[in-house]
Amino acid sequence: MTPEQALLRVIHCLDRAHESGFKTKAFVRALDIVRNTPPGEIEARVAADTLTDIDGIGKATAAVITDAVEGREPAYLAKVEAESQIEMTDAGRRYREALKGDCHLHSTWSDGGAPIEAMATTAMAIGHEYMVQTDHSARLTVAHGLDEVRLAEQLDQIAEVNAVIADAGHDFRILCGMEVDILVDGSLDLSDEMLERLDVVVASVHSKLRMDRQQMTERMVMAVASPHVDILGHCTGRMIGRRPPSEFDADYVFAACAQFNTAVEINCRPERLDPPRELLRRAMDHGCWFAIDSDAHATGQLEWQPHGCDRAAECGVPLDRVINTLTADDLVAWTQQAA
Ligand SMILES: [Zn+2]
Ligand SMILES: [Zn+2]
């Protein structure tokens, strides 16, 4: 294991543990330094015990680099690897094993922490056959959302990465998508022309989450009824312990989801776990489709699907209504017919 590989794996585990603070930042900084320093210098500094003289390398990061250079499994990595394992119930495992992909994840194109290639490498490593790249749309400026020009550039890059993956002989594909903001009036933050170029469209509410119940219902029904929208992202917008769920008439919204073949997302982020169980059961009563999505903003977070799998199992979501149990071809066929 090279120092770069060791640091990358530590960052993966810290992200998996939802450790977003100074610890992760320190390892990201150290990774950047290692990538921009000749390996010979790193080795010489390990031998002379002068790694921490480099601005940005502290005790913990130096220990990982030293272990890697000296051919040991870094002790700190072994610790975070063990501590960040994702638990899963046996019932949830049945769902996780059936998943062939992930339909909602971010990259450094918007507010994610890893480039598309790194997300794809991890998605392959955890057994997926595909992932849908869904960065934010332009309206979400705080998340560096993509306008149409940047989205078009991203689609080109996805095609290039897919070509590299295919050349390497991997049976894996990145599908084109976006997490498109649902604007206040229920319209979408992307032109029809660009929406048509995407394989899978997740639509989510990120603004005015406290709007009046009836207006919010109309706003969501409008979006869900769009022939371009395939998945309704984190429907209540709640942040557990921090932000209450939005208020809307769930029966109207889920009836529209069922009628217009828009899947209800089971969002796996630990702070979201959206929809809450009661609403998840309500969506089932309406015969909705579902997508169990990580909404990952880092490679380690791609391993969060078990959270949603456990909830799906607990509520008895029919496995054959989960769209990411489909193959990539069948999923795209499903989103096209839904259109
Ligand atoms: Zn979102
Ligand atoms: Zn998202």
Describe the overall structure.
- This protein has helices at residues 3-16, 22-35, 39-48, 59-69, 75-83, 90-98, 116-125, 148-167, 192-197, 213-225, 250-259, 277-285, 305-315, 328-338, and strands at 101-102, 130-133, 173-181, 200-204, 231-232, 263-267, 290-293.
- With 339 residues, it is of the alpha/beta class.
- A 7-stranded parallel sheet has the order 1-2-3-4-5-6-7.
- The chain starts with a helix and ends with a helix.
- The structure holds zinc ion (ZN) (2 copies).
Ordered list of secondary-structure elements with their pairings:
Elements: H1 3-16, H2 22-35, H3 39-48, H4 59-69, H5 75-83, H6 90-98, E1 101-102, H7 116-125, E2 130-133, H8 148-167, E3 173-181, H9 192-197, E4 200-204, H10 213-225, E5 231-232, H11 250-259, E6 263-267, H12 277-285, E7 290-293, H13 305-315, H14 328-338
Parallel strand pairs: 1-2, 2-3, 3-4, 4-5, 5-6, 6-7
Helix pairs in contact: 1-2, 1-4, 1-5, 6-13, 10-11
The structure holds zinc ion (ZN) (2 copies).
